[in-house]
Amino acid sequence: MVKAAFLGLGVMGYPMARHLKAKGHDVTVYNRTRAKAEKWVADNGGRLAATPREAAAGQDVVFACVGNDNDLRQVTLGPDGAFDAMGAGALFVDHTTASAGIARELHTAAQGRGFDFLDAPVSGGQAGAENGQLTVMVGGDPAAFDRAHPTIMAFAKAARLLGPSGSGQLAKMMNQICIAGVVQGLAEAIHFGKRAGMDIEAVIEVISKGAAQSWQMENRYKTMNAGKFDFGFAVDWMRKDLSIVLDEARDNGARLPLTALVDQFYADVQAMGGERWDTSSLLARLER
Ligand code: NAP
To answer: CB 3.0 to 4.6 Å from 9: which of 31, 107, 204, 228, for a disulfide?
Structure first.
């Protein structure tokens, strides 16, 4: 059992920290909005810290799952940040979806202070976090990964080291590139089928057994067909992720024409008031 802190009790962090506690780890939580941390401790036990620095002091592992690069910088290197309190031999595991650049920057800063840093973004969404079934893509040093792996598995079904620092974030970018294209394709098929007067349920039941099958099709076609988008992975988050992807592509020379286009489609969804809608709301854009 390890002494762990969890920074950021949002949609993802709250249940991830709960799984850690349920596995018997000694968990301290920090959340910027204190009420959420108070509720977490009331629900799960454990200890509440007033700042990331206080949460991180004396821990074996410090986990974080906050919003973006700036938020991550704030909870690590900012005033009352975790890094100042972390001792030699400790480990910081970051589950935020952020840039590969900040992962490398924090890895270097951590090494300079004598502890390890892993970038470890997740896939599987809110349901994966609630069920402890996330997939974790990790970048960093093999020894640090081996130490973190058993603890990460408290909330994951799979975790894999994919290369040096930044590689977890690069893998997550590939994940988001795949999703952008697949969701637009599924939205166009449903839109087309409705216009053609087809029974969408019947068609999807058949084609989901063939080459058109996807996670998005299995898990989203029913809600898309019903025009329900008020749940799941928010369009605002997807645009944040795609902006990280497109910045990285500018640096490495990759051509991502479809991803760039779908990013603009999501800007249309935001303009429709869909900032917090699920990413499957690309269909709503076609049907407006
Ligand atoms: P969320 O519900 O909005 O939670 C964000 C958390 O970060 C909250 O605890 C928030 O604190 C905290 N935070 C944000 N900025 C901060 C700052 N400057 N200082 C301190 N704390 C700060 O987001 P989420 O859905 O859990 O997502 C978290 C991360 O996981 C994001 O990078 C997202 O892209 C990624 N992710 C999300 C999903 C998903 O399905 N939701 C799936 C995979 C990956 P407050 O409570 O005070 O706002």
So the answer is: 31
Ligand 1 nearest atom to the CA of residue 123, by list position: 43
The class of domain 3-164 in CATH terms is alpha beta
Alpha helices by DSSP H, listed for 25-85, are 34-44, 52-56, 69-77
Name the closest-CA residue to atom 7, ligand 1. Answer: 66
Tell me, using a 6 A CB cutoff, whether residue 126 lines ligand 1: yes
Residue 265 CA: distances (Å) to CA of 173, 180, 233 = 18, 10, 16
CATH 1.10.1040.10 fits 170-287, yes or no: yes
Q: Where are the domains of the chain?
A: 3-164, 170-287
State pLDDT tens for residues 239-288. Answer: 999 999 999 999 999 999 999 999 999 999 999 999 999 999 999 999 99
Q: Is the CB of 156 under 6 A from ligand 1?
A: no
Sheet holding 156-161, edge to edge: 122-123, 134-138, 156-161
* Residues involved in catalysis: 172
Ligand 1 pocket residue status of 65, Cβ below 6 Å? yes
> Measuring CA to CA, which residue among 179, 279, 188 is closest to residue 231?
279
Instruction: Identify which of 78, 125, 77 has the alpha carbon closest to the alpha carbon of residue 97.
Output: 125
Q: Which of 7, 66, 102, 245 to mutate for ligand 1's pocket (most ligand atoms within 8 Å of CB)?
A: 66
